[in-house]
Amino acid sequence: MIDILLINQAIPKKLRNGPASDLIEFLWKHNYFSVGEMAETVTATKAKLTKQTRGKKGSDFTDESEHKYKTVSYRKTDGDATITGIGNKTGLLRARVFEPKTGKTYFFKIPHKIYSKVPQIKICFNLDGSSKIPKTSKYPDWWSYSVTMKEYFQNCQ
User: Fold this and answer.
1) pLDDT for 14-68, tens place per residue?
2) Which of 3.40.50, 3.40.1350, 1.10.287, 3.30.1120 is the CATH number of 4-153?
3) Model confidence over 107-136: pLDDT tens digits?
4) Cβ-proximal residues to 50 (8 Å cutoff; 6+ apart), any chain
5) What angle do CA 4, 8, 9 make, to 5 degrees?
6) CA-based angle 108:111:117, to the nearest 5?
């Protein structure tokens, strides 16, 4: 299953229903062959954020916030969306997680003071695609930072 919400937010309707060559040109022009890049651009547009110069360390946006997009991966007993590469980040983390079994997208806004103390963020799921809060964990309950899509796109920390 693909993230239809993201596709609808990122690609104009006339291109989704038009010639494939126009769609491919649009995807190439916007570097949308990377789903993470597509999600980041949607976040920048909807939250009215300015993207940092490519390659700038510490954040994706000029407000010092960071964006991450993950799809849930499953094993025999459960699943998770593991967010890595957060060690050098400097501000609010906006995480967008797609769960393919249900087709749902989850949004998280995690303050830097919370995630700066951990090497990675692991957002857990049950096999049916529902949220899972580990019974024992040395990490914060990441689900407590879940927000609505509207809150996710609000440009405030």
Assistant:
1) 888 888 888 888 888 887 778 888 898 899 989 999 888 776 677 888 888 899 9
2) 3.40.1350
3) 999 999 999 989 999 999 999 999 998 877
4) 44, 61, 62, 63
5) 115
6) 110
Length of the chain counted residue by residue: 157
Amino acid at 134: P
pLDDT score of 69:
94
SS3 of the chain:
CCCHHHHHHHCCHHHHCCCHHHHHHHHHHCCCCCHHHHHHHHHHHHCCCCECCCCCCCCCECCCCEEEEEECEECCCCEEEEECCCCCCCCCEEEEEEECCCCEEEEEEECHHHHCCCCCEEEEECCCCCECCCCCCCCCCHHHHEECHHHHHCCCC
Q: Is 99 exposed, middle or buried (0-12, 13-18, 19+ CB in 10 A)?
A: buried
